[in-house]
Inverse folding.
């Protein structure tokens, strides 16, 4: 390796390492300080002493684990059923049904939580009011502010995510394996249990580990549905300690640092379990993808898929729309509807800047991030540069950092860390930077998969003909990987628009995005209806962009 290349690689490692590792180091540093980032407090173990001598800490950890485990199992079971119906059976309208699950995947999560509060809150939920009036029940049928409510909403949403992850494996499996089982007398569900699921075990195991880790880090559902009822998980307890007044930074930072270690241990376990495992379902001899005939059962599977769409999308969207026009949230009056909340929201001086800020965050993090991810992916997959393994490890690190904890790391890094000649805290730039770091694992992994499919001889031919590295990268390689580039850019853009957990500790009045404005409205007495208005507008923006992008992708064969 030439000296110039070595210097370039070293500089790249330092930059990426600074972006990723520095906030994590400052997170540990902050846990050893006796005050806030802006205080000149002495070093102290007070936070660890308070955190890990309190019985509540272990109760919250137990709640976090069992709640994540139950939701992961139920979400996985539902996702397997959805993927099996869409890819392995002759259920009617399968393409439409697959799109309905994609809609559930893209729809912003927080507005759906607010919609379910309107539907299933114990005293004023529209479903509870309807059931009580029709059947004369004395007690409400549903209570969304409970463990059951948290599990219900999480399973609906997380199943769509797992569906996206496991559908390619289901679709690529050789149908001859299932047909052989049927010829030998096995029934449809016996074949599913003993043939389909065991063969697809690696994809299912990978998805289940991923979703368990994500649910251990879950924040929004527990914040909106459990916080007011005293139901705490690790992330909401950290939020309570830092966000409420007066903040207890030593306690919160001690919890954050140990929670970070727990999540990293889970990620390492995932790598160890899945590393090197391969189950071949597509071979060079050709394979069949014929759907399994269900007979009359196909109408039941169709009905169940439509029910999932109705419960996951149609019903909450209807509640979100109607709730934004209600005079009083959750109260059905003689003349229940009004345009007042829409007028007040649209004329609020915070509203339009929040849309602009959300678009800046989405566009900035997705655009800058994807060019950075593509360059890093090229170094990792298409060169033999020393240090590329270290570069890949660095881009993996944010995978194990919960959003709330990552935000605290950046808070300490750019408020209580190295003095800067400019103010970064509270700016759009800092939020974009955090979202770029958070996107490293997704962006680099997807681009790695695309890069390794492009043969090196194409670039070598361009070099022989006199083209520079930059010319071959820009004119040959990037056009070939553009479908992966564009699809990942869209996903990161949408994630940036709807992000809440990462932003809560970092925004200011000038950088407040729509997600935070929605949360502030919801938390303030008498402004819940405005929160529904903002949530509905955010949902329309995200879904419109996602569906348009998906339609464009179909036309272009992405």
């Amino acid at each position: 390796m030439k000296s110039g290349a070595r210097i370039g690689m070293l500089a790249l490692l330092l930059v990426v390492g600074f972006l990723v590792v520095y906030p994590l180091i400052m997170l540990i540093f902050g846990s050893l300080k006796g005050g806030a980032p802006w205080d000149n407090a002495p070093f102290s173990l007070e936070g660890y002493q308070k955190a890990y001598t309190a019985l509540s800490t272990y109760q919250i950890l137990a709640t976090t684990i069992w709640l994540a485990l139950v939701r992961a199992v139920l979400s996985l079971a539902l996702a397997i059923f959805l993927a099996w119906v869409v890819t392995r059976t002759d259920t009617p309208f399968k393409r439409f049904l697959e799109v309905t699950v994609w809609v559930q995947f893209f729809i912003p999560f927080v507005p759906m939580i607010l919609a379910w509060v309107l539907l299933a809150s114990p005293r004023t939920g529209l479903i509870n009011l309807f059931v009580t009036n029709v059947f004369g029940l004395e007690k409400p049928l549903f209570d969304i502010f409970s463990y059951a409510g948290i599990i219900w909403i999480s399973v609906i949403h997380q199943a769509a995510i797992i569906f996206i992850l496991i559908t390619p494996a289901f679709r690529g499996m050789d149908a001859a394996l299932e047909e052989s089982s049927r010829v030998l007398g096995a029934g449809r569900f016996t074949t599913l249990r003993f043939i389909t699921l065991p063969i697809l075990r690696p994809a299912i195991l990978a998805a289940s580990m991923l979703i368990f880790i994500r649910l251990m880090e879950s924040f929004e559902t527990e914040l909106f549905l459990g916080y007011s009822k005293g139901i705490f998980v690790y992330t909401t307890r950290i939020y309570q300690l830092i966000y409420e007044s007066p903040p207890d930074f030593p306690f919160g930072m001690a919890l954050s640092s140990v929670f970070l270690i727990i999540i990293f241990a889970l990620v390492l376990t995932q790598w160890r379990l899945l590393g090197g495992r391969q189950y071949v379902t597509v071979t060079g001899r050709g394979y069949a993808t014929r759907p399994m005939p269900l007979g009359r059962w196909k109408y039941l599977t169709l009905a169940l898929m439509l029910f999932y769409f109705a419960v996951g999308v149609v019903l909450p969207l209807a509640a979100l729309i109607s709730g934004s026009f209600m005079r009083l949230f959750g109260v059905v009056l003689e003349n229940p509807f009004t345009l007042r909340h829409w007028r007040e929201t649209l004329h609020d001086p915070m509203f339009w800047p929040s849309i602009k800020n959300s678009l800046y965050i989405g566009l900035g993090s997705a655009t800058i991030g994807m060019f950075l991810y593509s360059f890093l992916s090229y170094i990792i997959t298409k060169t033999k540069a020393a240090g590329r393994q270290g570069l890949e490890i660095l881009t993996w690190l944010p995978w194990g950092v919960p959003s709330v904890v990552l935000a605290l790391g950046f808070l300490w890094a750019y408020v209580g860390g190295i003095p800067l000649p400019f103010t970064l805290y509270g700016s759009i730039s800092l939020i974009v930077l955090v979202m770029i770091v958070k996107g490293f694992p997704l962006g680099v992994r997807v681009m790695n998969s695309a890069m390794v499919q492009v043969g090196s001889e194409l670039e070598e031919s361009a070099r022989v003909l006199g083209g520079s590295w930059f010319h071959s990268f820009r004119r040959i390689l990037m056009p070939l990987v553009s479908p992966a580039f564009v699809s990942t850019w869209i996903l990161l853009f949408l994630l940036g628009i709807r992000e809440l957990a990462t932003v809560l500790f970092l925004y200011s009045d000038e950088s407040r995005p729509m997600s935070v404005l929605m949360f502030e409205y919801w938390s303030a007495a008498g402004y819940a209806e405005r929160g529904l208005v903002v949530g509905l507008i955010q949902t329309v923006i995200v879904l419109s962009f996602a569906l348009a992008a998906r339609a464009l992708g179909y036309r272009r064969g992405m």
Observations:
- The chain has 25 helices and no strands.
- The mean pLDDT is 82.
